Amino acid sequence: QVQLVESGGGLVQAGGSLRLSCAASGRTLSRNAMGWFRQAPGKEEREFVASISWGGKTTYYADSVKGRFAISRDNANNVMYLQMNSLKPEDTAVYYCAGGPVTSVNREHYSSWGQGTQVTVSS
Prior knowledge:
Low-confidence stretches: none
Order of helices and strands: EEEEEEEEEEE
């Protein structure tokens, strides 16, 4: 099983940008689909943000982030990224990276999870 560690979260003003990273160890990322999910304050469930196929050619985005966020991966260095632009206060959440066998919008399809990184967007 792959171990995942997120980084890059922080406090940013509305309209700003952040880039999240997800580093893998234990196994390579290259044969895993990857995804980003987030859990907002007071919400019980993690919601889908974006996902990317193992080769990077297929990506999916939640409607709420489409056009503002971009997911990418560097299999040679076992890292996945989430570039977040035009951030809004409603993007405030703990962001989790995940790995699994299929490129999916469903968290049930992911078997490996990181511990999360906090993103706070002030108005």
